[in-house]
């Protein structure tokens, strides 16, 4: 029986020796018993006398609170954890084989190298969980012996898909995770890091992969029908025989060869203004009029989800323009006015933004790898109001690998969790910038002003 093939509960993934479809008997665990097991497991982890590895095999821990506990290497094989609260739980190397984790809350949990084969995570919450190298491949129907042992079926192996359908997995780290044949239908994987993940033949129908880092992932034969891939990075990914019919791929980062692949062309891509029946020149004129008259005349330019690759917009006035998910690869934006513009999830690889005015602009999750931002102004803009609020440029989770930001103004800019590997920030103004969790490996910060900058958890930064 298949966990991912319909309404069957996760416990149907296991079978009793008396019959393949019988539900396994799980005894309810008491709070007293739980505390005793945790105490012995703590001694086990610290190699103290009396330590015993925690075993919750085929136990019922539904709705129990395990938050913050260190249960690394614990055995949850076949356990029922329906609705369990496991926030900030350490489950490194734990066995959750064929476990029922439906509606469980595993936010920020550490599941690195955990065995989740055949587990059912339908409706589970795994936001910001660490799942690097976790094994979520299909499992095999098992039998429960009288002595409580779980063994494979003696005559034939019946595959059981790991199910993550309708799960919320925002911002989780699934680097190099094993997800082949996994059932991920209608899940939210926004901003997940899935570099090098093995996802061959995975079912990702209607899944939200917005902003995901899928560099080098193996998606061979995967079903991405109707998936949302806005701003997802598929550089170097294996896409042979994958299905993209109806997938939303505006702003998706693809290698040139992959972009032309027959499979990828099935998706919905950004059209050029001409293909969309738009007159770009006329739109720019109307937008300038809209800006100069404070919105009384003209029309705000909405260039979202358009392919503007290589377009010359140097010196144009695009203040507060909408460019969400726009493809501006290799575009010329030298000296362009873009204060308060929305460039979130835009593809700006190798674009020239030298001396561009980007004060208060949103570049959240935008890709600017190799872009030129020499002397670009990404400082705050003063909002005209009674409070006189400063509005910072937003580059949260932006990709700026190899970008040149020499002499750029980034005062108070939000660069949290952004990637700046190999970027040049020589003479840049970064005072009071928010750079928590940013990847600063091999960055040139010579003569840069970092006074008051938040560099908490920044990678590659010597404090």
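Sequence proposed for the structure above (463 residues):
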């Amino acid at each position: 029986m298949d966990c991912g093939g319909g309404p069957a509960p996760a416990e149907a993934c296991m079978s009793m020796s008396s019959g393949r479809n019988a539900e396994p008997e799980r005894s309810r665990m008491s709070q007293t018993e739980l505390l005793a097991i945790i105490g012995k497991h703590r001694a086990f982890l610290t190699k103290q006398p009396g330590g015993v590895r925690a075993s919750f095999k085929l136990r019922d821990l539904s709705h129990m609170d395990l938050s913050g506990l260190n249960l690394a290497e614990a055995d949850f094989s076949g356990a029922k954890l329906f609705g369990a609260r496991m926030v900030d739980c350490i489950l490194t190397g734990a066995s959750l084989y064929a476990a029922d984790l439906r509606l469980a809350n595993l936010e920020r949990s550490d599941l690195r190298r955990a065995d989740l084969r055949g587990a059912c995570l339908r409706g589970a919450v795994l936001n910001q969980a660490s799942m690097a190298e976790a094994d979520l491949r299909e499992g095999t129907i098992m039998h429960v012996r009288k002595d409580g042992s779980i063994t494979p079926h003696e005559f034939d192996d019946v595959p059981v898909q790991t199910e993550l359908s309708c799960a919320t997995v925002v911002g989780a780290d699934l680097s190099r995770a094993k997800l082949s044949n996994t059932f991920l239908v209608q899940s939210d994987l926004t901003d997940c890091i899935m570099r090098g993940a093995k996802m061959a033949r995975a079912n990702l129908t209607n899944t939200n992969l917005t902003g995901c880092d899928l560099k080098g992932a193996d998606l061979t034969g995967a079903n991405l029908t109707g998936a949302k891939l806005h701003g997802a990075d598929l550089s170097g990914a294996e896409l042979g025989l994958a299905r993209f019919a109806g997938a939303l791929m505006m702003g998706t980062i693809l290698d040139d060869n992959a972009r032309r692949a027959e499979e990828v062309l099935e998706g919905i891509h950004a059209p050029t203004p001409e293909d969309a029946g738009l007159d770009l020149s006329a739109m720019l004129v109307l937008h300038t009029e809209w800006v100069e008259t404070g919105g009384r005349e003209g029309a705000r330019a909405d260039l979202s989800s358009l392919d503007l690759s290589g377009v010359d917009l140097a010196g144009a006035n695009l203040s507060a323009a909408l460019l969400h998910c726009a493809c501006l690869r290799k575009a010329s934006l030298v000296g362009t006015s873009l204060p308060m513009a929305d460039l979130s999830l835009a593809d700006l690889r190798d674009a020239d933004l030298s001396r561009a005015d980007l004060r208060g602009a949103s570049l959240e999750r935008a890709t600017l790898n190799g872009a030129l931002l020499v002397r670009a102004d990404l400082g705050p803009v003063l909002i005209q109001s009674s409070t006189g609020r400063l509005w910072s440029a937003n580059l949260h989770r932006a990709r700026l690998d190899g970008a040149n930001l020499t002499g750029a103004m980034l005062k108070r800019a939000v660069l949290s969790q952004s990637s700046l590997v190999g970027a040049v920030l020589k003479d840049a103004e970064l005072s009071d910038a928010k750079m928590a969790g940013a990847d600063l490996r091999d960055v040139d910060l010579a003569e840069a002003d970092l006074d008051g900058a938040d560099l908490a958890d920044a990678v590659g930064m010597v404090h």
